[in-house]
Amino acid sequence: MSADTQVAIVGAGPAGLLLSHMLGEAGIDCVVFERGDREHVGTRLRAGGLEHGAVDLLRSLGLGQRLDAIGLLVERTDFRFDGRGHRVDFKAATGHNFTIYPQYEIVTDLLAAHAARGREVKFNTPVTRIEGLDGERPVIRYEEGGAARQLNCDFVAGCDGYHGVCRPAIPAGVIRVYEEVYPFGWLGILAQVAPPSLEVAYSCHDDGFAMSSFRAPEVSRLYLQCESDDRAEDWSDDRIWSELVRRLDVPERPAVRPGPIVQKSVTAMKSFVIEPMQYGRLFMAGDAAHIVPPTGAKGLNSAMADISVLAPALIDFYRRGSRARLDGYSAQAMQRVWQVQRFAADMCRLLHRFPGMSDFERRMQRERLAYMTGTPTGVLTYAENFVGLPFDA
Ligand code: FAS
Ligand code: PHB
């Protein structure tokens, strides 16, 4: 029985759309199933920054035009502790920039490329179950137009995010889960006001972590450490701005400028990884396989790094009939996944006020920050991780 399609991709987030684009460009037939509508997918406010490996990948795929036109290059980060700013010039240390280019712009670019090539994304089409992963012909069960349908394929790409249906299809005896839940959350806001400066600032303050980033020269993106059970509605605009000013403002740095808040949300903080990232004919990528606390701006970049390994492996199979790269996908992708997990967890532990911290632990945070920002080796170690470890593609 021939397959209805070669690769079934579950999820039209950055991972799924990037994989679909790369496979489509290689002439491989794939179907993308997305439970949300186009509006949901194309406007979700999430990640903001790209590592140089992600930028290079998008450019190599011909998807860099808008990125190069409106992306904002950042060359240094500013760490606030001891009542003052400590800048790290990661561009000088590594030769690489960090590029502010919002996740919704990447999704917009990928959806435009799909449309230009007449490639369909099945929106409003939730996958309900995937079966036959240990056989030759997996089956995707999904709902479309209110009817239950099914499609068979050669391979399934689980790009359905943390709450998807693909991960549960990996048998309990096969999957290993690594998880750390942090005792706080992040309140994130988007404000129609210029950021204090076009650099990313992190504050390790006695009252809690705070951070200043941006999405455009006139759009600020800021975060505050909050209680893990806080809700966005618990925070009035006035309370948000006064807390941001208290935690971020230091002498000799531009002050936080309050303005109209157009979006606010609370994100839980968790480190999460599954091993392996494949089972039979299922290959997991992005948040479906791993998530990080957003402290290090790694979630989106990790999803793209996974695809930079998975897409060539699938292309190799169809072009050369070799399963070698597919069989080695998880082992190869996991090397980078765990290095990113290490960096994101380290930054999370370094910058947040953990409940019940002893004075000694607080002092160790300060000494680690001073070493990281004040010594050549500390700066280089931070910088090479922040701008991004190499992509494999
Ligand atoms: P996604 O979750 O983006 O996409 C998965 C897709 O699968 C979704 O569209 C979903 O609707 C779909 N789906 C799920 N189940 C399905 C089913 N059964 N059938 C069909 N479709 C299904 N990262 C950073 O680097 N910096 C940040 O500042 C940052 N902030 C974040 C804030 C929030 C609130 C969240 C949740 C994440 C944030 N991230 C951040 C991480 C984020 O950007 C992810 O890493 C990125 O979206 C991962 O992309 P995907 O793996 O494609 O998963
Ligand atoms: C963001 O712009 O959303 C951002 C930037 C850097 C981080 C985290 C988030 O470390």
Explain the overall architecture:
There is one protein chain. The chain is an alpha+beta fold. The strands form 3 sheets. Strands 1, 2, 8, 9, 10, 11, 17 and 18 form an 8-stranded mixed beta sheet that branches. It is globular and about 70 Å long. α1 runs parallel beside α6, α1 (14-25) packs parallel to α8 (299-320) and α11 crosses α12. It is 36% helix and 29% strand. The chain has 2 domains: 2-74 and 97-179 and 270-351, FAD/NAD(P)-binding domain, CATH 3.50.50; 183-268 and 357-387, D-Amino Acid Oxidase, Chain A, domain 2 (2-Layer Sandwich). Bound molecules: arabino-flavin-adenine dinucleotide (FAS) and P-hydroxybenzoic acid. Arabino-flavin-adenine dinucleotide binds at residues 10-16, 33-36, 41, 46-48, 103, 126-127, 159-161, 164-165, 265, 267, 286-288, 294, 297-301, 303. P-hydroxybenzoic acid binds at residues 48-49, 200, 213, 221, 294-297.
Number of helices: 12
N-to-C span: 33 Å
DSSP, total strands: 19
Bound molecules: arabino-flavin-adenine dinucleotide, P-hydroxybenzoic acid
Mean pLDDT value: 96
Shape by Cα distribution: globular
**Radius of gyration from the CA trace?**
21 Å
CATH-defined fold name of the largest domain: FAD/NAD(P)-binding domain
- Quote the beta fraction: 25-35%
Provide the structure class.
alpha+beta
Number of domains: 2
The CATH superfamily of the largest domain is known as FAD/NAD(P)-binding domain
Question: What keywords describe this structure?
Answer:
393 residues; alpha+beta; FAD/NAD(P)-binding domain; D-Amino Acid Oxidase, Chain A, domain 2; 2 domains; eight-stranded mixed β-sheet; binds arabino-flavin-adenine dinucleotide; binds P-hydroxybenzoic acid
